[in-house]
Amino acid sequence: MDIFQAIIIGIIEGFTEFLPISSTGHMIVASKFLGIQESELMKAFEVIIQFSAIMAVALIYKEKISIKKIDLWLKLLVAFLPLAIIGFIFKDYIKELFTVSTVAYMFIIGGVIFLIVEYYHKEDDNYVNDVDSVSYKQALWVGISQIFSLIPGTSRAGATIIGGMLTGLDRKTSSDFSFLLAIPVMGAVSGYDLLKHYKEFADVNWIPFVVGFLVSFVVAYITVKLFLVFIQKFTFISFGIYRILFGIVLLIVI
Fold first, then answer.
1. Per DSSP, what are the bridge partners of residue 128?
2. Is the pTM of the predicted complex or chain greater than 0.85?
3. For 193-215, what is the mean pLDDT?
4. Average pLDDT over every residue of 226-241
5. Which of 50, 169, 179, 230 could form a disulfide with 164 if both were Cys (CB 3.0 to 4.6 A apart)?
6. How far is CA 31 from each of CA 2, 9, 36, 174, 249, rounded to the nearest angstrom?
7. Residue of 22, 15, 11 whose CA lies nearest to 98
């Protein structure tokens, strides 16, 4: 992997990881376009840039990472457990689902779901508008909805945001909870992958890795910041339309 490829992949990871559009499909297209073959080295690189994206979110929500917020983190743990349990039990079967057609169809299905949910979602004073006020029951339902993100192309962010909205959270609070939930979820995934691929770091050229790390961090930080501003003024309809169109293009092109 050269520096140019590291920059492009870092940008895509940082931009798509926390938006409800699935980073998986975009990584597939980018890898095909750049001529990058799926390899153990590439998997090691993905671990690095995912970890960088996690750090960006942790920085944005640094005031929530405190012992004073232990109740919030217990709720996040409740939301984390369903994915951890199901993912561990069915990890071998889930690998078999990873095909381009599956990713494309899940893009389209996810887009349709966003449009349907937005059509019926009318926020009022009954919706929870503060992430600290999320109940354990709501956290559990968000966690259950996150299980669907095990299907490639679904989008972890998309599944959890939709789950939050369906349980009575407003768009901003659903997004906040989704981003905070990404810290333990992606932290666990990245840690597991690091243990699997640590040998790949022995003789690696660190320059592209460092560049990808920095690019992913900066792009993820800016993207999440802008997204939080965007979602207070607009709906998720544009993301739903984008997912449908991208899924169709993916089916046609790849």
1. 169
2. yes
3. 77
4. 93
5. 169
6. 13, 8, 5, 31, 16
7. 22
